[in-house]
Amino acid sequence: MYVDVELSPLVRRSFSQVEGSVLRTEYKAATDRMLRVAVNGFMESVGVVLGVMEELDVDVLDDEGQ
Prior knowledge:
This protein has two helices and two strands; from the N terminus they run ββαα.
């Protein structure tokens, strides 16, 4: 999996998979503001991914027709 690096060298992010389908994301930052900006950006990306998954989910489309 390729993930864009953080723009600031003062912010570190790591991913790990736990319990099969849970993605754990850990952030470390030099300041609270850097941490907030990094996490907000990550949450926006998660929202986009979930929106695309919802739009492309064939099972959801099948359930709506019933």
